Amino acid sequence: MSTDEPIDSADHSPRSVTSRYADIDGVQFEPSTVPESFRHLLPLAMYWSIDDDVERIEVLISTPKQQLQELIGTVEPLERFNWNWCASLREKIPIPDEVVVYDALLQAASEAKIFLRENVNEIE
Predict the structure, then answer these.
(1) Alpha carbon of 21 to those of 28, 75, 93: distances in Å?
(2) 3 vs 40, more confident
(3) What distance separates the 2 farthest-apart alpha carbons in the chain?
(4) Which of 5, 26, 37, 93 has the fewest C-beta atoms lying within 10 Å of its C-beta?
């Protein structure tokens, strides 16, 4: 699949999460609308588009430490550019689906960093 083809969210399995934005019927993504510098993060953004705080924390807790570190290491270098892009489009009605999932990715990476810092001696 080309990175510019629409991605149908129905192809994304929920993995027992009921509040994943990317899994809502009718949600579609146009990768070409996402800046090329972080377009490759769209599948990760779709995975972490968990709206419910409790579910998102449960997924964070069940994710191995190394994967959380990879999430942080992948998102942090592009955080400011990603944040600015999302902020520039939040006024649109409706907010583009791509913005919703990238905002969720930023939130998940921030929460993963806090989670790892607070549980540094408890997780392996």
Answers:
(1) 10, 19, 17
(2) 40
(3) 44
(4) 93
Six-digit token pair at 105?
């990715």
pLDDT by residue (tens digit) across 80-96? 888 899 899 988 899 99
Tell me what pLDDT residue 40 has: 92
Buried-exposed string 62-79: b where 16+ CB fall within 10 A, e elsewhere: ebeeeebeebbeebeebe
Report the alpha-carbon distance of residue 78 to residue 3 in Å, rounded.
18
Packing angle between helix 97-118 and helix 65-75, nearest 10 degrees? Answer: 130
Position 33: which residue type? Answer: T
Rg, C-alpha atoms of the chain: 14
Residue 44: DSSP 8-state: H
